[in-house]
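FW: tagging you since you asked about this chain on Friday. Here's the raw sequence from the shared folder, copied in full. Didn't touch anything.
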Amino acid sequence: MSATEQNPGCLGALFRLFGPNAQPEEASDNETLPYHVRDDFLSAAETAFYNVLSSVVGTRVVICPKVRLADIFFVGRPHENRAVLNRIAQKHVDFLLCEPGTLTPLLGLELDDASHKRDDRKARDIFIERVFDTAELPLLRYPAQRSYNARELAALIETSLEGKTYRVADDSVPIVEDAPLCPTCGIPMVKRRATRGERRGQSFFGCANYPKCRETISFE
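HL: got it, structure written out here
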């Protein structure tokens, strides 16, 4: 065996990787892949906020959660600006509101919990704000809370979407300020009036998902 065969060096290693007998990195049929469906695609706080957000915007916009910045924005001359592209490749925005039908991005929405007070998160947030501002796509930051004022959230979204063609306040659902969240669905409840039974004529809070959800809370 020659010295070259004993120590093929870099060229030999490349030949093994890219030569005619090189194998693709795809798994064989007999290989067991360690993939599982996550049960925490959204955190509990993100899920609660998503339900409130969904009740506010209705069907006027499409809500896309956890969208990579690299899927929203493109980088001009990416081969020359590889470092700039890498800065957004692993970052995402919590929610992206899109135009129905075309799915054109309308508004980014970040849900800020306590972790956003850390110095490293502050630097990340400033960078993401610069990205949205540079691309002229509005970004709304909203603090995570135990309960949400649906009317306040709707007003902030409408302000952020000023000049857009879609209004997000849904007049078909009577939103009450500081309405409680449904214990089952996690969305703001709506004020209703009993039409029969011993409570006939009395007001109460009912889930907006009625009749699928029949949770009620007494109105005081």
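FW: The radius of gyration is 25 Å.
HL: agreed, and Residues 44-160 form one domain.
FW: great, closing this out.
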